[in-house]
Design goal:
The protein is globular. With 360 residues, it is α/β, with parallel strands linked by helices. The strands form four sheets. A seven-stranded mixed beta sheet has the order 2-10-9-8-5-3-4, sandwiched between helices. It has a three-stranded antiparallel beta sheet with strand order 11-12-14, with helices on one face. A two-stranded parallel sheet has the order 1-13. It has two domains: 241 residues, 3-Layer(aba) Sandwich (Aspartate Aminotransferase, domain 2); 102 residues, Aspartate Aminotransferase, domain 1, CATH 3.90.1150. The structure holds pyridoxal-5'-phosphate. Pyridoxal-5'-phosphate binds next to helix 3. GO terms for molecular function: O-phospho-L-serine:2-oxoglutarate aminotransferase activity.
């Protein structure tokens, strides 16, 4: 029996995707081989890569002004590559700090360029977004980086900032495809696939062709977005199996109605869980400000931390895994990515109410 998996990533994959993967594993499209055993330069895989790019463009409504790259190395590698590609020597990049992952992005960038913090919500425990009136931008900044969703702190940026003179760079790792996004307003967006798009090991980078043309700083060719784009993301051997699974997930999302359908589902799922938390009379708490409560990752604490281990043990016995909170915050966290259905959240909420009745 499959568990209900609320992991923050790698996360639950849609069952039809896993079934197709199983069925095609030994003989993919009549080749007599697994997709993992075929050359990325052969016709079957090249055709697949083209299909997946077209599907990704349709799912995410990516305009022709932007290239889509399929890269390895995860989101963290992108956080290092972005300043290398977008900053010329001596330039500064602006960062908004909304939680743990913004800080990681700064850590990566600081090794290669000057970084300016536009504003930080750290003094507020990352429970709300930094007050807009206090944001300070660098004149002539190479770009402005924001984190679309803070996977650990459960803080989501529902309205992307208006572009300043600096192009907007967005980490969409944990909320890509969770709702429609206007990529025409974004210079570069990136997302590790392992949350909302598929398996770990492959990362989507969506970058405007204008930014691809930037000189950037001196770096090896393998670190150049433009070189990856020129070679169809096959500058070197790509993670072919992961790319294929990503493609299956994208197809599945298109078949389910695309990002507008997932927006409605994710709103219903997250509203139900927040209501269960808020109506528990303090047994469960999530302290994030209402206007930025994430629809993807919902951290919550139990009123008595001594119950944490019991909650995890009992939830696992009830068939639910991945609920342990990140070590930085403790408590619990439920991740509600697209592969999680409303009925899964109903089951979680029923378990939480029952647990409260027995232990409250
Ligand atoms: C918002 C966000 N950015 C970046 C990362 C780092 O991703 P990766 O492990 O793919 O490097 C994560 C991982 O959880 C994340 O949630």
């Amino acid at each position: 029996m499959r568990s209900l998996n609320f992991s923050a990533g790698p996360a639950q994959l849609p069952l039809p995707v896993l079934e197709q993967l199983r069925d095609e594993l030994l003989d993919w499209r009549g080749t007599g081989a697994s997709v993992a055993e075929l050359s990325h330069r052969g016709k079957p895989f090249m055709a697949l890569a083209e299909e997946i790019e077209a599907d990704a463009r349709r799912l995410l409504a990516v305009p022709d002004s932007h290239a889509i790259l399929f890269l390895s190395g995860g989101a963290t590698t992108q956080q290092a590559l972005i300043p290398m590609n977008l900053c010329a020597a001596g330039e500064t990049a602006d960062y908004l700090v909304t939680g743990h992952w913004s800080k990681v992005a700064i850590k990566q960038a600081s090794a290669v360029c000057a970084v300016h913090t536009v504003a930080s919500a750290e003094d507020d425990g990352f429970l709300r977004l930094p007050e807009k009136s206090q944001w300070t931008h660098t004149k002539g900044a190479a770009y402005f980086h924001v984190t679309g969703n803070e996977t650990i702190h459960g803080v989501e940026l529902f309205n992307l900032p208006e572009a300043t003179q600096a192009p907007l760079v967005v980490d969409l790792s944990s909320n890509i495809a969770s709702r429609p996004t206007d990529f025409s307003k974004i210079g570069l967006a990136y997302a590790g696939a392992q949350k909302n798009l598929g398996p770990s090991g492959i990362t989507l980078t969506i970058v405007s062709r204008e930014l691809l043309a930037r000189e950037g700083m001196q770096r090896p060719d393998i670190f150049k977005f433009a070189s990856h784009a020129a070679q169809g993301s096959m500058l070197n051997t790509p993670p072919t199996l992961n790319w294929y699974i990503l493609g299956l997930c994208i197809r599945w999302m298109l078949g389910e109605g695309g990002t507008a359908a997932f927006e409605a589902r994710n709103l219903a799922k997250s509203s139900l869980l927040y209501a269960t938390i808020d109506q528990s009379a303090g047994f469960y708490t999530n302290s994030v400000a209402a206007d930025c409560r994430s629809r993807m990752n919902i951290p919550f604490v139990l009123h008595d931390a001594a119950l944490d281990a019991v909650f995890l043990e009992e939830s696992e016995r009830a068939g639910m895994i991945g609920l342990k909170g990140h070590k930085a915050l403790g408590g619990m966290r439920a991740s509600l990515y697209n592969a999680i259905a409303l009925k899964d959240i109903e089951a979680l909420c029923a378990f939480m109410r029952d647990f409260q009745m027995r232990h409250g």
